[in-house]
Amino acid sequence: MRVASGSGRSRIDGLLADRRRFLRSFLDGPRRVGAVLPTSRRTVRDTLDMAAVGEAQCIVELGAGTGPYTREILARMRSDADLLAFELDPALAGALQRDLPDPRLRVVAESAATLEAHLDGRRPEVIISALPFTSLPAAVRAEILAVASRALAPGGSMLVLQYSPFVQRDLERIFASVKRRISPLNVPPAVLFACTSPRTGP
Question: N or C, which end of the chain has less CB nearby within 10 Å?
Answer without folding.
Answer: N
